[in-house]
Amino acid sequence: MDASNKLVERPRAFPFVLLIGAVSISMASILIKLCADVPSLVIAFFRTGIVSLILLPIFVVQRKPYPVKLLLLSFLSGIGLALHFGFWISSLKYTSVASSLFVLSIYPFLVAIASHFFLKEKLTLKFALGALFTLIGIGIIFSFDLFSISFTLGNFLSFLGALSLVLYFVPGREVRKEIPIIQFLFVVYSTATVFLLIGVRAGGYGFTGYKTTSYVYLLLLAIVSQGLGHSSFNWALKYVKAGLVSITTLVEPIGATILAWLFLGEVPGVARITGGLLVIVGIIVAWFDEK
Predict the structure, then answer these.
(1) Burial zone of 159 (CB within 10 Å; 0-12 exposed, 13-18 middle, 19+ buried)
(2) Average pLDDT over residues 172-193
(3) Contacts of 155 (CB under 8 A, 6+ apart)
(4) What average pLDDT is seen over the chain?
(5) Does residue 265 come out as left (phi exceeding 0), alpha (psi in the -120 to 50 range) or beta?
(6) Would you tell me how many other CB atoms lie within 10 Å of the CB of residue 141?
(7) Contact (Cβ atoms closer than 8 angstroms) between residue 50 and residue 219
(8) Would you list the domain boundaries of the chain?
(9) N or C: which end of the chain has fewer CB within 10 A?
(10) pTM exceeds 0.70, yes or no
(11) pLDDT of 7 over the 60 cut
(12) Does position 291 have pLDDT exceeding 50, yes or no?
C-alpha cells in the first residue's frame, strides 16, 4: 500500500462509534416498512434531506477549502447513495426485511473488488475467506425466495442497491482521507437529496397527504438511521479500508431481522437463521484480518 493509502491511527472510541452506527442503521428497514403509504423515492428524499438541513449551519460555520477533485468525488458518492436508497427502499415494498438486507449484503465484495483496483487496497486471504462465508449465507437465503415473483423482484432491486454502494463507498474513502466529516457528509447528503428530488418530481410524487405517523417515522429514519448510522460509517472510512467498513455494516441484516420479527411479525425461517449465522462468521473472519 502506498503512502497515499496509509490508514490513520484509530481513536479509542472507534469500536463504540461503529456499534452505535450498527444499532442505528438496523432500525432503518423497520421504520421504512412502517411508512407503507409513502413512495420509496419520497422516503429516500426525506432521509437525506432532513440530515442535510441539520448539517447545513455546521457546514457554513466550519467551512474549509474543498479541492475540486475531492468535491467531484463527493458528488459521485452522493449520487451512489441516492441510487442505493432508491433501489433498496423500493425492494422493501416487494420482499421481507431479512431477504432484502441479506441480498444487499453482497455489496462488500463489490466494494472490496473496486477498492482493490481504484484505491490499491489489497484483497487478503482472510478477507476472501470471510467474504466466502458471507456469500454462502446470502445464497442460502436467496434460494428460498425464488418461488415468489414479488420476492425475486425485491431481491433484484436490493442487488441494484448493493451495486450502487460501490459508487458511494469507494469515492468516499478517498475523500475522507483529507476532508473533515461534517464537510464530507453535507456535500454527500445534499447531493443525494438533489438527485432524489429529481426522481421524486419525475415520478410525479408529492410530499404531503401521508399519515401523521409516517412523518414521525421519516424523522426518526433521518435522525437515527441516517444521522447516527450512516454517518458513523462515513466517519470510519478515514481509519479503515473501504471494504472492511462495508463488511462491518453487515450486522444490519442480523439486527433488522430480529427487529422485524419482534415488531412486524416477519418470522425468520431456518434458512434465514442459518444464512445469518454464516454472515456473522464472515464478519468475524474479516475483522481478524485487520491489524
Answers:
(1) buried
(2) 90
(3) 91, 95, 99, 100, 103, 142, 145
(4) 83
(5) left
(6) 28
(7) yes
(8) 12-288
(9) C
(10) yes
(11) no
(12) no
